[in-house]
Design a protein that fits this description.
This protein is α+β, with helices and mostly antiparallel strands and 130 residues long. It has a single domain, classed as HIT family, subunit A (2-Layer Sandwich). The protein has three helices and five strands. The structure holds adenosine monophosphate (AMP) and zinc ion. The site of adenosine monophosphate has 13 residues, from loops.
Length: 130
């Protein structure tokens, strides 16, 4: 059972804030910040590696529309647009989705990168990935 497929079928209630042919956007049941929204393709794909490009594009376009709407209504100071892929990255629902997280001063949400550049050779990585 996939919770997002059940939401899309209408079998589990949700607060829908956007819908088009390919995508729905619902309020995250656990609001990390005010307006925290999940943008979800109607077709089930496990993650960003599985989703087909046309639907991925539809999700990202919808994410921008949702962010623009939140921006007008709540006037946040910024946004994080976020996807977790895989358990190690914190993915808990295995149906691809993008988090739209409006950011407010003092919102207590901590998304932080640690600098490990001293541990890695940038030339080597660039050459591996080119
Ligand atoms: P992730 O950890 O990136 O897989 O995000 C999954 C998100 O789905 C979490 O932020 C949950 O709070 C959210 N979530 C889980 N179940 C529901 C639900 N029934 N309605 C709305 N959001 C949900
Ligand atoms: Zn699903």
């Amino acid at each position: 059972m996939c919770v997002f497929c059940e939401i899309i079928k209408g079998n589990i209630p949700s607060k829908k804030v956007y819908e088009d042919n390919d995508v729905v956007a619902i309020l995250d049941i656990s609001q990390a910040t005010k307006g925290h929204t999940l943008v979800i393709p109607k077709k089930h794909y496990a993650n960003i590696l599985e989703i087909e490009y046309p639907e991925y594009e539809a999700v990202m376009i919808a994410a921008k529309k949702v962010a623009e709407k939140i921006n007008v209504v709540y006037k946040p100071e910024g946004f994080n647009i976020l996807n977790n892929c895989g358990e190690a990255a914190g993915q808990t629902v295995n149906h691809f989705h993008v988090h739209v997280l409006p950011r407010y001063k003092d919102d207590d949400l901590n998304i932080q990168f640690t600098d490990h550049s001293k541990d890695f050779n940038l030339n080597e990585i660039a050459s591996d990935l080119e």
